[in-house]
Amino acid sequence: MARNATRSSGLFSGLVLISVGVLILLHNYGRLELGEFFRHWWPLLIIFWGLVKLYERTVGRRFGGGSGGVTGGEVFLVLAMLALMGIVVAKEYGKHAIEEGIPGLGDRYSFDIDVAPKTVPANAHVLVRNGRGDIVVRSSDNAQIHVTAKKTVRTWSESDAERLAKPVSVEIIQNGDGIEVRPTGYDLSDSRIGVEMDLEIPKTATLAVKTDKGDVTVSEISADVSITDRIGDVEVRNAAGDINIELGNKGGVKLSEIKGNVKISGKGDEIEVLNTSGSLTVDGDFYGPVRADKVAKGVRINGPKIDLTLTALAGHLEASTGNLDVIDSKGNLISKTRDTEINIENPGGKVVLENRNAPITVRFSSTPKEDVQITNSSAAISVIIPGSSSFEVQADCRNCSINSEFPGLQAVRSTGEDSSLSGKYGNGRGPKITLKTSYEGISLQRMSIELPPRPGAPPAPPSVPSVPKVPEETEQ
After folding, report:
1. How far apart are CA 286 and CA 140, in angstroms?
2. Where do the DSSP E strands lie in 355-390?
3. Is residue 458 part of a domain?
4. Are residues 140 and 50 part of one domain?
5. Angstrom distance (rounded) from CA 290 to CA 270
6. 59, containing H or E segment
7. What is the DSSP letter of 321?
8. Contact between 257 and 293 (Cβ < 8 Å)
9. How far is residue 87's CA from residue 93's CA, in Å, rounded to a whole number?
10. How far apart are CA 378 and CA 357, in angstroms?
11. Which of 60, 133, 241, 432 would be a feasible disulfide site paired with 224, CB 3.0-4.6 Å?
12. Average pLDDT in the 445-453 region?
């Protein structure tokens, strides 16, 4: 019996080690919360031990001292233990699926929350914190915070929803020098529960919003605004202060009528910024297009495939995967990209472009005043300049040709298939244009600016028709 006890004890220890190892792997590489799992399912250890004891009592005698080999009963026991653990883990994953809101798993139940308003200083620092749920913040002319809130619960039954939702509320508390608005009565990481909040805060209050999942909308705030949203869209309208937005994984940004500087960082979808008196900085991986209109103090984009600095934007910019379009850039434009088709229309300052594997087109609607430097690789360069311009050009094309429409500026062939062009056009006192690429060619095009026709002499006034003379009657 001692040998059999040792055998069963070893079997139990082996099962425990296997189970713990599997759970740790699921914790590290899956979505299983190990602490929460053991808090709920630690009785499984007792069940495992009891099953081993039953096995020892019913089967162990048959083997007596027993050989050291693995029996069919032991294999069955191990498989049964693993199957039991698999069912439990599957339940945990199923709970996660419900919490993530996968359609068809669980129902949503909503309940209103009454929140008493709180008087705060007009220039208070307000922090809105949430786990899940949309947040809307508006300005108010009085020195109070008003909150309208609704709690939502996803469960299989209404009774469970009422039980989970009952302690959930929203509180407005003094937190150091600031005011914090946050849900209470549950763990914010519990993704079965969400709280939607609609707030009115003093117009001059500084605002910070931190949430894990949900859309955030802010309007008419005069002070600085900071928003951290892991999953969700962010919209800010008519704000006078600086805007700082950080996205964690997924979501888009839409800003309009911003007087301060804007910074957007992290990872997400598309960005749209309209009419900004300050600057725009985009730092991160945004796989949707970045659109901007009228950014007075310029645009800075730092992404995986684009590094762009623009000191002033009077028109439109759109940067997406594989494309960069800029119209009416009144300041200097410096860009380093790859695999990106570039189209620049009417630049007003210095232009420095570096690209590869995609064409570049730059069109001047008026005489260029600053230097232009374009370097490409394995793709074409096209520059369109008004015929009335004066400039100096240096163009080099490796294994390709150069086409110039300007009289007196013609490319020469060097050894092999390389081409080069060097010279001045006009009075020669204009900017220097430097172009360099390989394989696909360089085109220097002349754009004629048509003047409106001169007005002719005013038309002569219409002549007055003569009245025919009536013949006099003769006497009979």
Report:
1. 33
2. 360-363, 372-375, 381-386
3. no
4. no
5. 6
6. helix 43-63
7. T
8. no
9. 10
10. 5
11. 241
12. 63
The structure tokens listed for 115 are 């929140």
Mean pLDDT of the region 88-96: 58
Is 251 found in the same domain as 197?
A: no
CB contact at 8 A, 224 and 205: no
Whole-angstrom distance, CA of residue 124 vs CA of residue 114: 23
Same domain? For 294 and 401 the reply is no
Residue count (the chain): 476
Query: Residue 428 has what DSSP assignment?
Result: S
Task: Say whether pTM exceeds 0.85.
Answer: no
Contact indicator for 333, 315 with CB cutoff of 8 Å:
no
CB of 172 within 8 A of CB of 147?
yes
Q: CA-based Rg of the chain, rounded to a whole angstrom? A: 37
* Distance of alpha carbon 144 from alpha carbon 200, whole angstroms: 8
pLDDT band with cut points at 50, 70 and 90 for residue 422: very high
| Distance of alpha carbon 315 from the chain centroid | 22
| Interstrand relation of 351-354 and 412-413 (parallel, antiparallel or unpaired) | unpaired
Question: Cα–Cα distances in Å, from 222 out to 13, 138, 205, 216, 454?
Answer: 65, 11, 7, 17, 52
Token reading at 400: 């390709």
> Which residue type occupies 432?
K
Neighbour-count burial of 217, counting CB atoms closer than 10 A to its CB (0-12 exposed, 13-18 middle, 19+ buried): middle
Collapsing DSSP to helix, strand or coil, 366 comes out as: coil
Q: Are 122 and 218 in the same domain? A: yes
- Of the pLDDT bands very low, low, confident and very high (cuts 50, 70, 90), residue 328 is very high
User: Final residue of a domain: which of 159, 192, 223?
Assistant: 223
Domain that holds residue 248: 230-304
Ranges of H-type helices in 100-219: 158-165
- Copy the structure tokens of residue 399: 């294994």
For residue 463, count other CB atoms closer than 10 A to its CB: 6
Rounded distance between C-alpha atoms, residue 39 and residue 448, angstroms: 79
Q: Positive or negative CA dihedral for 16, 17, 18, 19?
A: positive
The pLDDT mean for the chain works out to 82
Segment holding 333, helix H or strand E: strand 333-337
Q: Count of CB atoms within 10 A of residue 419's CB?
A: 20
| Joined tokens for residue 401 | 């040709």
Q: Take residue 323 and report the two structure tokens written for it.
A: 């494309």
